[in-house]
Structure formats: C-alpha cells, structure tokens
Amino acid sequence: MEHRSHHTRQKKPLLVILGAGESGFGAAVLGMKQGFDVFVSDGGEIKEIYKSQLKHHRIPFEEKGHSIDKILVADLVIKSPGIPEKAGIVQALRKQRIPVIGEIEFAARYTDAKTVCITGSNGKSTTTMLTYHILQKAGINVGLAGNIGKSFALQVATEQYEVYVLEISSFMLDDMYDFRADIAVLLNITPDHLDRYDYKMENYVNSKFRITRNQRGNDIFIYCKDDPETNKALTAKEINATMYPFSLTEEVQYGAYLNEEKEIVITLPNQERFIMSINDLALQGKHNVYNNMASGIVAKVWELRNESIRESMGDFVNIPHRLEHVTKISGIEFINDSKATNVNSVWYALESLPGKIVLIMGGVDKGNDYSMLRELVQSKVRGIVCLGKDNRNIHNAFEADTDVIVNTQTMSEAVQIAYHIAQKGDTVLLSPACASFDLFKNYEDRGDQFKAAVREL
C-alpha cells in the first residue's frame, strides 16, 4: 500500500472509488486532476491492465477486500454500476450519509460538453455506435463513452470533445442524481435484470426513466411510441423535455415514422424532411429500423445534412459480437451474435435474418421465459444446438417446435454439428439468450471461440 505524507497545507477532500474496472480507473484519474485525494478499493481482483495504470498514476488502491475504516471517512464515493444497493459496503455508507454516486454523474460535473444519452433494454450499443458514427462522419467533435469504449471520466480528464454519445444502462442510471441529458433516448423496456429490482417491473421502468431526470424544456426526449411499457409509464410521468417519438405503426407529426413505401420519414420543426428507404440501411431487421430512427432524430436535432445522415446509415458496420457476419461456407452463412445474452435479443436476431436458421444457444439461464421465441422457432429454425452445462429449459421450451435439439459441451463441437444440420442457403446463428460464464470467460470470449471454430471447418 502506498502512503503519501500530508503537509500542513489544507487537507484535500477524500474520494473513494469502489470497483477498479474501466469506469473506476477513469474516475480515479479525473479525481486526481480535480484535486481530490483518491483511494480505489475493489472487493475482487483488479485486472492487470488497470493495476499497472493505477501504479503509473500513483493512485493508491487495494484489492480482494474493502478497508471499511478508510472508506467510511470519504467525502464522496463513486461506485461501480455492478455493485448492488444491497451490498454491505453501500449500506454502511448510506448509514453514514456519505454521498454515493456513479462515474457518469461525477464526470458530468467537470465538462460543458453536450450529452446524447441512450438507454433501453435492447439495441442500445448498436444505437450508440450508430449515432456516434453519424455525428463523427458529419465532422462533429464527438466522444463515445458510458457502457462502451473508454470511460466518460477518463475522456473528460484527458480529451476536449464538444459532445459525448453515452450508452447508459439502468444500473448506471440508478447512481445518477443531478445529471442532465441534453438529448435522452429510450429505445424500449422489456424485462431484464429484474433480480436487481426486487423482481418488480415498475422498479426497472422507473430506473430507465431516470434518463429524463432534470431535463428542461429545450432538452430533447426521444422514445418509441410502439413500446407498451414506455407508453404506460408516460401516462403517469411528467416529462419537461421536448418529446420526439418514433414509430413503425403510426404517422407522427414531429419525430420519425415508416410510410407506406417502407421509407423512414423524420420531421422536426423548421427543418427539411428526411426520407430514406429501409432497404438502403446497413442494418437490416425491424428492430434496426427503430435504432436508425432514434439515431436519425438525434442527427436532425443536431441539424446535420440529410445527405450526410443517409450516407452514414448506409455504410455503418455494427459492433463485434452483435449479428456479426463471420463467413460463408458452401452456401451456409455463419453469424456471431454472442452479445445476445437475453431472450429478447435472440428474438431480434431471428426476426432480422432471412431463410432457415440453425440456432446455437444456451449457457447460464437467468430464469428465461422462452415462450416469446416459439412462433419464430416454429417458422424459421431448422434445428437448435445447445451449448451449456444445463440445457433442460431449452429442451422443455422447444421440443415440440423444432425437429432437432442436440446437446454439446464445446464450441467446436457445437459449430461442427450445426454445420451438418444446416443446408445450403441456411444461416448458422450463435445467439445464446444466456450468460456465458459456465463455459467461457465472457460473451466476447464465446464469440471469439465461435469465429475460430467456424474458420476451422
């Protein structure tokens, strides 16, 4: 443990950071820069990459446990979004009335940059990347942060962006209080992570709506008019921001909708109307029409040229492990969708792909309800290859709906069997609906092993 002597000068306020991942490390660097004494504490092991960075910046830290006496004298605590409210250390801090906030809240205090904040149960990474791509290609000085890429705090400490596109999870929103989004986007709300919300959907919905907190009349709130949970919540909530809905089913005055010619139409006050055929979008599938509408409204709020928006929507390359094209072998397409860790994401994947599909799924099941996939499995899935230690739920859910369900224990076995089941013109899709840590380090590792196995065929 490193100690630094305190001279007689005035004592600096103590900032304690719980969790030394990407956001924790970034918050530590920003804290130092803003004149705090910083102490980083992680209950688990700190990854080597962050450990060496902390040492390089001479930031004191501890791992594999918390020194309670040190933490409970903090002036301010920043906690990792992964640490739940009911954790002992958080409860102890609450008892002492020490303010506990998230890294996004902290970083926002030290920047005048505009923020575009994107949340939703599904599609937020894609929409965040797409929005960033559109703004960047139009020549805006834009940063990308939040749940994706380098931490917001680190960029506030070291970069000079005029605007940030932030992917915000519900866990992050729970630790945000005075933060104000200039543009807030809520894509959809479907059950996910309910274990963190006492299994009450309304708690999760309220969490998502924190993205509209503190917004004023000239701020923007972009939302999906077709989403039942969002609509239900809107009847009970007061939104101060200017609201722009997007919809596939009805025409809207201001916002985005799909016309009868299957074109996205975006109309904002005093601006030239934007029109683009959904066939020209780089991202196909109904859910991606929503993602493009949301990003397109942001671009129009920024008053970008239609030509520039259209070009970016047409040449966008999606994030790794999200419906990522791997290769084609003897007429069979292989797609890596390892980031699909819930049932809803798999529904999107099945919905957006043409033709017959051999689906590789399974892993650590978060109490999944597979019933929403039944119709798509009946109509589109040739066979299911289970990959996981315990696949009983998948068998029970789909035994009557598809001809083949096979169990496998390794990725190369799963890929070989899927390849044998598939016929020319089919797609082999890795879209697990489950967490990965029974057989893999994380969803990236799972996706990388899939790609490697496909290349060995």
TrEMBL record:
<dbReference type="InterPro" id="IPR004101">
    <property type="entry name" value="Mur_ligase_C"/>
</dbReference>
<dbReference type="GO" id="GO:0008764">
    <property type="term" value="F:UDP-N-acetylmuramoylalanine-D-glutamate ligase activity"/>
</dbReference>
<keyword id="KW-0133">Cell shape</keyword>
<dbReference type="InterPro" id="IPR036615">
    <property type="entry name" value="Mur_ligase_C_dom_sf"/>
</dbReference>
<dbReference type="InterPro" id="IPR013221">
    <property type="entry name" value="Mur_ligase_cen"/>
</dbReference>
<protein>
    <recommendedName>
        <fullName>UDP-N-acetylmuramoylalanine--D-glutamate ligase</fullName>
        <ecNumber>6.3.2.9</ecNumber>
    </recommendedName>
</protein>
<dbReference type="InterPro" id="IPR005762">
    <property type="entry name" value="MurD"/>
</dbReference>
<feature type="domain" description="Mur ligase C-terminal">
    <location>
        <begin position="321"/>
        <end position="434"/>
    </location>
</feature>
<keyword id="KW-0436">Ligase</keyword>
<dbReference type="Pfam" id="PF21377">
    <property type="entry name" value="MurD_N"/>
</dbReference>
<keyword id="KW-0573">Peptidoglycan synthesis</keyword>
<comment type="function">
    <text>Cell wall formation. Catalyzes the addition of glutamate to the nucleotide precursor UDP-N-acetylmuramoyl-L-alanine (UMA).</text>
</comment>
<dbReference type="Pfam" id="PF08245">
    <property type="entry name" value="Mur_ligase_M"/>
</dbReference>
<keyword id="KW-0961">Cell wall biogenesis/degradation</keyword>
<keyword id="KW-0067">ATP-binding</keyword>
<keyword id="KW-0132">Cell division</keyword>
<feature type="binding site">
    <location>
        <begin position="120"/>
        <end position="126"/>
    </location>
    <ligand>
        <name>ATP</name>
    </ligand>
</feature>
<comment type="pathway">
    <text>Cell wall biogenesis; peptidoglycan biosynthesis.</text>
</comment>
<dbReference type="Pfam" id="PF02875">
    <property type="entry name" value="Mur_ligase_C"/>
</dbReference>
<keyword id="KW-0547">Nucleotide-binding</keyword>
<keyword id="KW-0131">Cell cycle</keyword>
<comment type="similarity">
    <text>Belongs to the MurCDEF family.</text>
</comment>
<feature type="domain" description="Mur ligase central">
    <location>
        <begin position="118"/>
        <end position="298"/>
    </location>
</feature>
<dbReference type="InterPro" id="IPR036565">
    <property type="entry name" value="Mur-like_cat_sf"/>
</dbReference>
<keyword id="KW-0963">Cytoplasm</keyword>
